[in-house]
User: Which sequence fits this backbone?
């Protein structure tokens, strides 16, 4: 039941990414979600039995599923590396191609040393006492833990620097990565308990397996799905705000260019500027030009000046800083600063 | 070459891409001129005839003097307009005039070329202001540029 739920969650994530990230150039996260979705679907009992039947009924479907999981995690790790700014050599090596190669070769070698028998949907429970089964599972979940560790570090950083709605996906990814790491630790502990014959201890730790699996996939899927939605909403909100500012400044700008024709009058019309932000910039500059030109009589009310300042703050980013926290513009140097030039 | 083409060529020749910071741009302009470039606020500049900024070029350095404005965006436009004159090569020939009345206290031998942002009634001024708008868009783009995180996960 849990496996079906997890597979469903992953396919919903894949659909969501295909819709909300369709115009994005980097596809790492979509490849990761797609590969892991196929891997998790293979873990659904009915699918597992059917696929394993096609592969000779000796649990090759397990190797296929875990191999795909490792490849999916590799895409995720690569995405985390590309997105993060802190990339020490050790971490790069842990999520790079050599680590992927080692994980795939290690699991494959361990898998073929297992006395596997016929198809079973309780592979670990039935065969976990074999050392090669423990080795196989430990390799898979160590790799999983490393990748989720990189993801956790990234999510924590995003949570620290994010603002407003951006905090939601960061928090979900933080919780998902933490649950995933806890799951990896739990599985490795169970593997060691099983192979050493501590079955009671294995069962006690095993009680956490189901909830941790569900929480890890639930939070990770939600985090990865919500992130592009938040970006989309923020972009739409900014475009709508620009259009609103243009509309509210329209009469003030017309008054300004009547007394002091600016570039828009010298050329043809700002209506020709297709980009709304560029048009807003031009209108603000022309209003400000009229305001400071001593040769013209152009007065603005307090309300109009407030509106103008709002429009400027919108173009420069709130509080003079943009979405990425950088200062909006570097103010020109003053006379006092000339020695630094 | 028409105005749009001249502006586009100037932006392309900067080789800064479509988004850049003010500091990137300042560096590129300095590199182009291969000389010292100072940007200085002169509060009294706009008091009489609506002059917002002046590019003063002497034998040793370039100086951009700009009026004060309460608006950061507006003040930036003054400076970008003068950068635009530089990038468009408006003082590379004998186009620039020396206006004694404007800066009477500066000895003529230190002042060889001069351009100012005031009215947009000549092709040169229109081109400079158009390029300034494009430069402002590039700087604005850098402010709102996506983080690597957002490019990959957003």
Assistant:
């Amino acid at each position: 039941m849990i496996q079906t739920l997890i597979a469903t969650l992953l396919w919903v994530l894949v659909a969501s990414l295909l819709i909300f990230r369709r115009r994005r150039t980097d596809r790492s996260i979509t490849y990761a979600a797609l590969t892991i979705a196929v891997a998790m679907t293979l873990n659904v009992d009915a699918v597992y039995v059917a696929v394993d039947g096609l592969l000779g009924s000796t649990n090759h479907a397990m190797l296929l599923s875990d191999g795909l999981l490792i490849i999916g995690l590799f895409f995720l790790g690569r995405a985390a590396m590309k997105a993060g700014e802190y990339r020490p050599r050790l971490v790069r090596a842990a999520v790079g191609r050599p680590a992927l190669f080692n994980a795939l070769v290690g699991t494959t070698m361990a898998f073929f040393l297992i006395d596997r028998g016929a198809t079973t949907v309780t592979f670990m429970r039935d065969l976990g006492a074999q050392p090669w089964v423990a080795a196989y599972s430990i390799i898979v979940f160590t790799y999983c833990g490393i990748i989720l560790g990189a993801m956790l570090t990234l999510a924590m950083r995003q949570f620290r620097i994010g603002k407003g709605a951006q905090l939601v996906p960061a928090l979900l990814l933080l919780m998902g990565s933490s649950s995933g790491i806890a799951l990896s630790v739990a599985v490795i502990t169970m593997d060691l308990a099983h192979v050493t014959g501590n079955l009671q201890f294995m069962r006690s730790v095993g009680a956490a397996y189901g909830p941790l699996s569900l929480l890890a996939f639930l939070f990770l899927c939600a985090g990865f799905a919500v992130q592009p939605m938040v970006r989309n909403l923020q972009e739409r909100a900014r475009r709508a705000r620009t259009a609103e500012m243009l509309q509210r400044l329209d009469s003030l700008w017309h008054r300004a260019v009547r007394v002091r024709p600016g570039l828009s009058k010298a050329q043809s019309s700002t209506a020709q500027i297709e980009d709304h932000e560029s048009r807003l910039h031009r209108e603000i500059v022309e209003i400000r030009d009229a305001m400071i030109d001593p040769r013209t009589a152009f007065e603005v009310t307090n309300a109009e000046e407030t509106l103008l300042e709002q429009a400027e703050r919108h173009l420069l980013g709130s509080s003079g800083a943009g979405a990425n926290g950088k200062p909006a513009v570097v103010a020109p140097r003053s006379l006092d600063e000339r020695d630094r030039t | 070459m028409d105005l749009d083409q001249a502006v586009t060529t100037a932006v392309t020749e900067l080789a800064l891409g479509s988004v850049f910071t003010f500091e990137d741009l300042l560096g590129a302009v300095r590199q182009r001129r291969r000389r010292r470039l100072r940007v200085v606020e002169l509060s009294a500049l706009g008091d009489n005839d609506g002059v917002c900024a002046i590019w003063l070029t002497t034998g040793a350095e370039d100086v951009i003097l700009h009026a004060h404005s309460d608006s950061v965006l507006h003040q930036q436009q003054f400076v970008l307009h003068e950068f635009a004159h530089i990038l468009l090569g408006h003082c590379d020939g004998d186009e620039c005039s020396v206006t004694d009345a404007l800066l009477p206290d500066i000895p003529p031998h230190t002042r060889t070329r001069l351009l100012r942002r005031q009215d947009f009634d000549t092709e040169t001024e229109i081109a400079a202001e158009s390029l300034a708008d494009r430069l402002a868009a590039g700087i604005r783009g850098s402010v709102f540029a996506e983080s690597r995180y957002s490019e990959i996960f957003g």
In short: Chain B has a mean pLDDT of 82.
